[in-house]
Structure formats: C-alpha cells, structure tokens
Inverse folding.
C-alpha cells in the first residue's frame, strides 16, 4: 500500500512515509547477513569460562536418588510461581533444579550495573500481594527483583528441596511407574511424578563471531556474568572505581547495553561503545513508589486487577482506564486511537495495518527527535537514531543512556551496520582503525533462534521413547502452550501458544502456574497418576492458533535481530510461535473459564 492508497484519516502530512520506508529498507539491507544466527559463537569448549558463575561458589553435596511429587527445571519466575501455587494447594515436595547458585533465573545472572525491569514493577514482579512486598520504584532495579525471588523461595519453603548449580542432563518418562526419571550433572538420579519446565527464552549467553575474538589479551566478560572484582562497584550501582584508569569497550547496544552504559560512562577513563544497530530509546520516567498511595491501591485482589488492566490496555480488552501508564500502554493506546479514526466500515485488516504503521512512524519520529534534543554532538546524535519500526527490535526506555554520550571520554563507535571488523590482541578494530582497550564487555545477548535442545541442554523422552526434539521437528505443538501429547505429567511454563503476552512475560507464567496447580490438585484428589492432553485436543488448539494474524513483533521487513530470526526466512515452524488468535486478554479469560469448569477439556486423567 502506498500513501496514495490510504484512507484520508491516516495521512499524516508532516511525515514523509515513502522516504521513511525507503530509509528503513536501506538500513535493513546494510545489516542482512547470509549467516543469520550462525554469526554468533556458542559459548562452549574453550569459551566455556564465559559461563562461570562469578556470584556464588559451588558447594559439594551428595547426589539425590529419591522421589518427589513435582520437579521443576529453572528457578526463575516460572519455577517460583508454579512451586508457590503448588505449595498453596498443599503440595510441598516441589524440587526446583537450577543451574545458578540461587533462585532468580535471569535476575540471578543479570547483575550488571543499572539492570532494572522494563515493565512496571507492580505488574512485572510476581506474587506481590501474596508476599506483601511493595516495590520501591515504578521500575525496580535488579537487586530488589533478585531479593524478591529469594523472598518467594523463603516464604513458600522452596529452599528446602532446591538443587542449585545443577544442570539437568536427561528426562525420561517411565511408563510402568508413571513418573519421570531425572538425571543431572551432579550425579542425581531421582524420580518425580510431575515435571515443570521454565527454562526461559533468553538464558544462554552468546558471543559475537568476530574474527580474532580469542586473541584478545585484555580482560573480558559477558554482561550476564559481570565481573565486579575487576570493575569495582556493585549491582546497586556504586561507582566502579577500578575502571577509573581503564579503557573499556562494550560490544552491543541492545536493552542490556542501554542500561549499563550510563554507569560505565561515569566510571571509565575511556569508554568505547561499539554499535551495529542503534536501539530505540524512549522516555523511562522512573519514580519511587509512595507508600501512602500504595496502601490505598493495595486492597485485596489488587495485583490481579492491575495485571488485567495492563493486559487489557496492551492486548485488547476494552479497558477504560490505564493504571500502569507507561511506554507499552502508550504504544497500544496510540495504535487504537489511529484505528478509531477510521470510519467503522473502513476498519479492514489492511487499513488497520496501515494505522499501525502510521502510529509507529509518528512514535519513531518522536524517539529520533528525542536523540537530537538530548545528545549534544550532531554527528553522534545522527548515529544514535533508529531507522526501523518500534516493534522490529526490543523497544528500550531510558533517561540517562543518550545523555551518556555527552560525557567526555565516552565514544560512540558506529560501524554503519557492519559490526566490529576484528578483535586484536590489544583492542577492537572498526573500519581499519584499532581502539586499544584494557577490558572488553560483550553485551551481545542470548541465544534465541537456536534449537530448544541446545538451549535447554536436555531433550525429553516421552511415551514409547519419543523425543521432544523429534515431535517438535516441524514446530512447537502444544495445547495452551503447556501440554504435549505423548509427554504425560510434563508442563511447559512459557508464553508461546498461550497468551503470548511479550510486554509482561510474568503474567503468562503466573497464570500457567495457577493452571498447573489446579490440574495437579485435581489429579491428586481423584487418585489419578497421569495427566495427558489428547492428540485431538492438541491438534484443535494448533488449528485455532493458526486462524490468527500472526506475530506483530519482528517481521520479515524489519532490521535483523532476534525478533525476526536475524532477518532470515525462519521456515514453516515459526508460524507456530504465536499466541491465542484473539489476543492475550481473550486467552486469560478463556483459561480461567477452562480451569473453573473443573472439566479440563482436552486432558485425560488416568
Ligand atoms: P541483544 O541481543 O538485544 O543485543 C545484542 C547486541 O549486540 C545488539 O546491539 C547487536 O547488534 C550487537 N552485536 C552483535 N554482534 C555484533 C557485532 N559483530 N558487532 C557489533 N555489535 C554486535 O542483547 P541484550 O542483552 O541487550 O538484550 C537481550 C534481551 O534481554 C532484550 O531484548 C530483552 O528482551 C532482555 N532484557 C530485558 C531487560 C529488562 O526487561 N529490563 C534488560 C536487558 C535485557 P544488532 O542489533 O545489529 O544485532
């Protein structure tokens, strides 16, 4: 569709959309690479030390050879919420198996300075009402979120059974005994009646496959293993005084880099930020939460009301007020307002997509103008502007990142979409120029587009010896994103094929936790040993999912990144990476009714 074809109400005269479309395309084309996900290095073998835990020493323990009712893989929000809900129903022997040295998942590993949640704490942090915790800020910082994970662990007695610094190696269904056999790298060989998987989508750090990466003689680490011994400072944001005489480089300008660069800029003698693609950085407007205000809103059921209100504002639910009021709800509100400008009879899919694009152009122009307003050097400001749709890459929100480039000693080294050319013994080379460095920090993200088995580190062997990797060879197949036929008593706790609410992932997890607790309680009350989805129910769910419009984030025309499989055709399996066709709010309403009916339609209890 060209601007000429658009309905009158969508023409925004001040924005030259054709020029922007052309510019977006040019910038995208600069970044397309034939190697897609293969451009990254797997952190293994001689690079494995990048995975070492800098935060907690590994304590020796005897292997477990017993039986538990429920084993859960992953000690992040998914495992904590599920175990907490199970505990509420009286199931106390839930064993969480976690590769880190404590609970927290992503918040255990990501302790880089400035780390904070990008979704408002009141809806992002799970079980606030149950634990009675009031977040200190609208967007809480990482130490508070990690402490909250520990709070959940303590309150629900989850430390008693947890196995930390433990990596699952095999999971096999024992048909004769109706239970899972679990083996780990610590010699454990125990059984569990039920199994939960909450390994998270972004937990395996990756390194850029830049020539010479192994030759660097200075100090280096990945942002998810921050080396405070080297930098000084702490996760609370204390000045990293040991960097005062250091030349530091950081590769990557995604959501992580946006949060830690202001802290590095303050501390380093010289900071070099190596950029391939700029992030879109919108207003953050963080603020402390006022306890008086909080005591007024925190009436019984408050967190569920806030969750539903945020989701309704985000994903269609006809909310009249916007309790959270942040960048995410603003984005949706603007798109809806554009659609409402269309006369009812003109609200076709094509016109709605045009309204979406129109709203996005306006938002991105605001974000680019913000760069000009905040960054003093014109050339640097120009290079910090993002030329793509806001949902092409993870939107960022920060009130100190752009300003950090006004600090003397902080240098943006833009690679014009090409990426770092080479890493040498003593520095990083871009466009033939070497930047000498004492320390190189990789803010290069996490594996996303790789195989599930490679990221989780294990496969599941279900009924009749079927492997999950084979069953999902042509794409994920589940009912509700939770159950897989042939894998009884195993539950997946993650957003895809469920609500798929990406702007607030914990909401997906806490709802699924509730669903699992109710199913397990039902099984126990009825003396059932097994819960399994029927093939027909799974097929029907997949058919339903495929009636939707597909994903609104990423997209083949977007600049490459993990949202769109690095710009490569993702193959037919990707069409299954979707959520409920009517949106997250519709899914949550549906699943509540499904649970409440007590029928658990589509499942067999045996
Ligand atoms: P990302 O994958 O988003 O960013 C990786 C960065 O490395 C990109 O800027 C990428 O450039 C760059 N890069 C890769 N290879 C090269 C190269 N050869 N030369 C130069 N640059 C290179 O990782 P992050 O850790 O920033 O974020 C991952 C995700 O984690 C986020 O998207 C978000 O979902 C989550 N997160 C959430 C936070 C929160 O909620 N508060 C905070 C931080 C992260 P290019 O863009 O060109 O590929």
């Amino acid at each position: 569709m060209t601007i000429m074809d658009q309905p009158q109400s969508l023409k925004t005269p001040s924005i030259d959309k054709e020029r922007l479309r052309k510019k977006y395309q040019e910038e995208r084309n600069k970044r397309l690479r034939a190697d897609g996900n293969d451009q990254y290095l797997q952190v293994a073998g001689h690079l494995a030390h990048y995975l070492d835990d800098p935060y907690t020493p590994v304590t020796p323990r005897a292997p477990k050879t017993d039986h538990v009712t429920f084993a859960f893989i992953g000690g992040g929000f998914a495992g904590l919420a599920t175990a907490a809900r199970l505990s509420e129903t009286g199931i106390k022997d839930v064993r969480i198996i976690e590769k880190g040295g404590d609970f927290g998942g992503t918040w255990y590993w990501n302790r880089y300075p400035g780390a904070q949640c990008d979704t408002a704490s009141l809806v992002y942090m799970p079980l606030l009402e149950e634990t009675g915790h009031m977040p200190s800020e609208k967007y809480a910082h990482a130490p508070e979120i990690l402490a909250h994970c520990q709070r959940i662990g303590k309150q629900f007695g989850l430390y008693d059974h947890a196995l930390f610094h433990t990596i699952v190696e095999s999971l096999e269904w024992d048909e004769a005994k109706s239970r899972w056999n679990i083996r780990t790298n610590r010699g454990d060989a125990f059984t569990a009646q039920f199994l939960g998987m909450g390994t998270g989508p972004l937990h395996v750090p990756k390194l850029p496959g830049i020539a010479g990466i192994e030759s660097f003689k200075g100090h280096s680490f990945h942002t998810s293993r921050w080396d405070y011994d080297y930098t000084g400072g702490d996760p609370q944001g204390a000045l990293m005084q040991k960097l005062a005489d250091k030349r530091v480089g950081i590769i990557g300008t995604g959501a992580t880099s946006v949060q830690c660069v202001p802290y590095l800029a303050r501390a380093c003698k010289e900071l070099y930020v190596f950029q391939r693609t700029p992030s879109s950085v919108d207003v953050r407007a963080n603020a402390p939460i006022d306890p008086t205000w909080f005591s007024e809103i925190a009436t019984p059921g408050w967190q569920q009301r806030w969750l539903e209100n945020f989701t309704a504002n985000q994903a269609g639910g006809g909310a009249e007020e916007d309790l959270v009021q942040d960048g995410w709800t603003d984005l949706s509100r603007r798109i809806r307002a554009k659609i409402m400008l269309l006369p009812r009879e003109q609200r076709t899919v094509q016109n709605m997509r045009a309204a979406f694009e129109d709203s996005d152009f306006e938002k991105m122009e605001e974000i680019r103008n913000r760069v000009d307003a905040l960054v003093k050097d014109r050339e640097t400001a120009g290079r910090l502007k993002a030329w793509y749709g806001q949902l092409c890459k993870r939107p960022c929100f920060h009130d100190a990142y752009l300003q950090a480039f006004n600090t003397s000693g902080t240098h943006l080294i833009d690679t014009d979409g090409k990426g770092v050319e080479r890493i040498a013994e003593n520095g990083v080379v871009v466009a033939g120029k070497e930047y000498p460095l004492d320390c190189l920090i990789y803010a290069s993200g996490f594996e996303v587009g790789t195989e599930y088995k490679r990221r989780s580190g294990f496969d599941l062997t279900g009924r009749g010896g079927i492997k999950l990797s084979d069953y999902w060879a042509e794409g994920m197949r589940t009912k509700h994103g939770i159950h897989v036929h042939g894998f009884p008593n195993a539950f997946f706790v993650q957003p895809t094929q469920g609500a798929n609410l990406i702007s607030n992932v914990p909401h997906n997890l806490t709802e699924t936790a509730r669903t699992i607790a109710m199913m397990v309680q039902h099984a126990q009350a009825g003396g059932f040993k097994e819960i399994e989805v029927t093939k027909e129910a799974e097929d029907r769910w997949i058919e339903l999912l495929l009636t939707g419009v597909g994903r609104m984030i990423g997209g083949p025309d977007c600049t490459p990144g993990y949202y769109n499989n690095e710009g490569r055709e993702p193959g037919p399996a990707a069409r299954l990476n979707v959520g409920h066709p009517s949106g997250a709010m519709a899914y949550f309403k549906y699943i509540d009714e499904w649970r409440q009916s007590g029928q658990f339609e589509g499942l067999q209890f045996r």
Summary: The two ends are 54 Å apart (CA to CA). The pocket of NDP is lined by residues 31, 116-118, 202, 208, 210, 251-257, 259, 274, 276-277, 394, 415, 419-420, 443-446, 561-562 (CB under 6 Å). The chain has three domains: 3-31+285-358, 36-49+205-279+393-442, 67-202+449-605. Confidence is low (pLDDT under 50) at residues 1-11.
